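Hi P.,

Sorry for the delay on this. The queue was packed all week, but I finally got your sequence through. Input first:
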Amino acid sequence: MSEQPRRMQVLQAIVEDYVSSREPVGSKALVDRHQLGVSSATVRNDMAALEEEGLIVAPHTSSGRIPTDKGYRIFVDQISEVKPLSAAEKRAVQSLLDANGDFNEMMARTVRLLAQLTNQVAVLQYPHADSSTIRHIEFVFLAPRRALVVVILSTGQVDQRAFGLEVEANETSLTVLKQQFLRYLDGLTPVQAAEGLRLALAEVPAEDRDLALAFAVQLDQMFAARREDRIIMAGTANLARSTGDFPFSIGPILEALEEQVVLLRLLTEMEQDVRGLSVRIGSENTGSLSEASVVAAGYGSGAKLGVVGPTRMDYPGTMTAVRAIARYLSRILSQ
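Then the structure:
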């Protein structure tokens, strides 16, 4: 084996060992644990060359080496084939995502499952609903002064919201009101719904205006949530267990997770490679995420899901899980 392929093999071994143990890796350990087919002296020379190229570094006074952001990048780029999930993982994904429940519950299950599979923070951007249209709405009494609004979209997604009423109403008035709103909202996208609500309210008799306004406010807030990009996440506790992987503090990363605009911008900017994945490592991210890695994939009609974690990450396993979940979700949403 020539020098360069062997050095890439040594780099791969260092990444794998360091990700597994969190301990700097020495030449003797590499020779003992990996079938490199060369002596410790040759491995030491390869490590010196890798260090000179900026792919590995000695932390403090340790005799071992750890990968740099550049080293992780070379390692990730060498992954030519993303392995499929195991049979057990496939069954778990299928059963969980096929479970009954509304759209929001399914998205919440998805992000929790991704966090469990990767042991990282999972983030999921809600799909853009520009192409979804309003197919039906329903107003339901839950109690004398409490009602439920239900919106069904052309994609089959169902949104619902319960709220308190400050005015008296009866079933008949709710039925008439529902028909009035539906006349102006049927077939519109959430983006167009504000104008439909305005037109519907303009034709409501004065005596029913307060009741109509109460329902219009709830509908507008539901449509606004669909008009805005938003993110849900799970597994923040996984990040808290990785504090040793961050030289300074996980505080800035936690703040970035809370400020969804930072994540939304990052996910939007990330372009997928030929494997259907986007991977940003450490310093490739700017600002508060410069000590973290992000692995993401697109699903549906342009939205993205992924994970955020330390640069000392199981990249092959994480890439497998992210791509698999994105594909499962795309398939479900297209049905």
